[in-house]
Amino acid sequence: MERKVGIVGYGITKFGRRTDASLSELSWEAGAEAMRSAGIEGKEVKGLVVSNVGMWSSEELPAVVVGEALGVRNVPTLRVEAACASGSSAIHTAYDMIASGRADIVLALGVEKMHEVDTETAVELIGRAGNYMWEYEFFGLTFPGYYALHQTAYMKKYDSKEEDFALVSVKNHGYAQYNPYAQFRNPVTLEEVMKSKYVAWPVKLLDSSPITDGAAAVVLASSRVAKELTDTPVWITGLGVANGTSNLSRRRSFTSLEASVEAARTAYASANVDQSAPWKHIDVATVHDCFTVAEVMAYEDLNFAARGEGVKLLREGQTQVGGRIPVNLDGGLKAKGHPIGATGVAMAVEVSKQLLRKAEKGRQADIRNGRALTHNVGGTGHYAYVTIYEV
Amino acid sequence: MNLSNIIKDKKTGDPILHDLRELRLKYELPVGRVSRFFQGLEEGKILATRCRKCGARYFPPQSWCSECGSQEVEWFEPDPHGYLSTFTVINVKPKSFNTFKDYVVGIAELPKDELKVLAWVMEEPSKIRVGAKVRVGVVKREDGLSYGIFPED
Ligand SMILES: [Zn+2]
Q1: Scanning A92, A133, A321, B118, which has its CA 20 to 30 A from the CA of A366?
Q2: Where are the domains of chain A?
Q3: Domain boundaries, chain B
Q4: Looking at chain A, which residue has its C-alpha nearest residue B94?
Q5: How far is A159 from A112, CA to CA, in rounded Å?
Q6: Quick check: B120 and A134 CB within 8 A?
Q7: Separation of alpha carbons A128 and A143, rounded Å
């Protein structure tokens, strides 16, 4: 039988244009804080999983760099990649190492250093993250372009407007002002979002997550060790993962990410969460809002709202503190920032803080069930990871 | 290595080592197993593949069947008529597409053969509607022969 696994410590860096620190230095900031909060040293870590997409940064073997920086030696060490969901894939891999009995303490650390190249090069590299020859080489799709294809289809099917999606940006920037780790701490108005320039019509600059440097880390432990280390472990009780096709032209729907639906179904089943009304069991969620349409689709793919009613859920304030299910109280990818390989781990840090009632003033959810969800998408539904955490 | 290689970041002012080792990447992509597709473009056709065993159809074309594992696939010309599922205008272009004007990327659904084709939509964005009748066809672009989505009346 699988062993129970929990988070016993976490750390996160300030997100943003972190030209003050190298990949190694960012990793140390987050990793050292995570180990300090868990009350352990590097030599007690028995497995190291590093999520990093790279390409835009110079270190080719980041997992080794992280091990050296944190004094983690002679243990199973690897780098994992699941595009923007790499961070969640690191946590799921670390979970498996512990659940299988191979290790008692594993560090999952996500790091991305995107400002080692210029913006144009970063846009090019992210845009190549679909099917390379048939979509990029021939037609120059960009990452906002992928999600724009979904937004156009959604707007047509459900008769919604660009303003509806802009509300995601307004909400998430609104919460980011209370998050000291966020890249953008400025609130934005609906008008400002609507006036921002198009990057891939109908997606505008202020619908989009930025290019970000940052790192986040969690120390995971088996239940026996977790109980020795802390009185307040955050248990992982539900895991769901699915993949989608590389070619967007082979997808059935453009108003939903099938991989998210599948991942949610599996995660809800494993954590005994009501499939049709998950908000009854979940107090707070982070969803993958790399673009505003992605957050709206996530509401529906995760069953927070019925098909076509994601916009209504948002407009009614049901995804704010006090609503049906508060979403992205850390500012989301949109305003907190999106250091690609670190994002999934940063989501785990965020829901840990929420469940332990340690979120900063102005952005703490009411914790009633003691259960939270993270939804982390790689590419445009190329990968989807849903994880459920409990205290 | 000396201090003269250290510059200031244009936004933060932080000291940055300006890398002296530049790497250019240009891939060489094997297309031998789908070369019939490129011959098809020369003939004015957009070709797809179909599994002889289970009938599964593939666009982009591929030389094996992911559904049943068969390697017996044949080339065929799908009915090029369909409708537009969705589209976007690429306003901020990647570096390697900088020489192009803003282009429209769309997905055409070809209902007769149950295939979808992602390509440029050869029409002014203001005239494009989701659900509009379209056909897929060969396009002669400045960078070579390609295929695109054309409006139909
Ligand atoms: Zn077959």
Answers
A1: A92
A2: 5-117+211-229
A3: 30-77, 79-153
A4: A124
A5: 37
A6: no
A7: 8
A5-117+211-229 CATH choice from 3.10.20.30, 3.40.47.10, 1.50.10.150, 1.10.3470.10? 3.40.47.10
Residue of B8, B19, B91 to mutate when probing chain A, most A C-beta within 10 A: B91
Among B9, B90, B146, whose Cβ lies nearest the Cβ of A142?
B90
Question: What's the CA angle centered on A351, arms A82 and A305, to 5 degrees?
Answer: 80
Q: pLDDT tens digits for A320-355?
A: 999 999 999 999 999 999 999 999 999 999 999 999
Contact B105 A149 (CB under 8 A): yes
pLDDT at A3: 87
Give the separation between CA B72 and CA B59, rounded to whole angstroms: 16
Tokens 């509401």 map to which residue?
Answer: A299
Asked if A124's CB is within 8 angstroms of B96's CB, the reply is yes
According to the CATH classification, is domain B30-77 in 1.20.58?
no
Hey, which residues does B140 pair with through a beta bridge?
B145
Tens-digit pLDDT profile for residues B36-79: 999 999 999 999 999 999 999 999 999 999 999 999 999 999 99
**Out of A128, A131, A145, whose CB is closest to B88?**
A145
The pTM (predicted TM-score) of the whole model is: 0.97
ipTM for the complex shown: 0.96
For A216, phi and psi rounded to 5 degrees?
Answer: -150, 150
